[in-house]
Design goal:
single chain, 197 residues, alpha+beta, Aminopeptidase, 7-stranded mixed β-sheet, 7 helices, 38% helix
Length: 197
């Protein structure tokens, strides 16, 4: 298994990343389309290859995560791509809802200088349990210039919370989820990791 920043790959990995993204977020994305291939094409434009890191094995993407600061977005949605793949009305609605969720929603704390946000951590279902996310996050810690790392996770995602705790992350803020009945979780947990000096 090799970890790379996806803009250094020999081919464009964004379609592969998008397929894993759609699989991971399908319970929310299926409102816009139940066709996973169509959703994969819809999102493939959105991932900033300069801040996404992927685990690769035999030219297959096993998983990924983004790491960025407040100045550089990890995802940039383009409305006409949504309309092209999902149709004018559904594409417009999906773009507006998801832009608000993925791009415009601020963190409930101030991002400081020297702080990086780890975002969109996902592993393809057939490769889970192999330490893919662990290796990607450790690679990010070792190969990005930040001193402190923060991430957001749902309180009900106990596997992810346990993984982050093993990697040295600690919860520093809890924010109630206002639509908890619909979303299936109660709190957003914000976790922090500080590099040893």
């Amino acid at each position: 298994m090799q970890i790379i920043r996806i803009d250094t790959a020999q081919r464009d990995l964004r379609l592969d990343v998008s397929a894993i993204f759609v699989e991971g977020f399908y319970q929310w994305l299926k409102f816009f389309s139940k066709d996973k291939a169509k959703l994969t094409r819809t999102f493939s434009h959105a991932f900033n290859p300069k801040v996404f890191f992927a685990a690769i094995e035999a030219d297959t993407v096993l998983g990924f995560a983004a790491c960025t600061n407040d100045a550089v977005p990890s995802i940039k949605l383009v409305q006409h791509e949504f309309r092209r793949h999902l149709g004018f009305i559904k594409g417009t609605i999906a773009y507006r809802i998801l832009k608000n969720e993925f791009e415009d929603k601020p963190y409930p704390f101030k991002m400081q200088a020297g702080m990086g946000a780890v975002e969109f951590v996902a592993t393809a279902s057939q490769y889970r349990g192999r330490g893919v996310a662990t290796q990607i996050i450790q690679y990010i810690h070792e190969n990005t210039p930040f001193k402190t790392y923060v991430l957001e996770v749902a309180d009900t995602n106990t596997n992810a919370v346990q993984l982050y705790e093993k990697l040295g992350y600690q919860v520093f803020k809890r924010v109630p989820e206002p639509h908890h009945k619909r979303s299936g979780f109660n709190f957003y947990l914000y976790m922090q990791y500080k590099k040893q000096q």
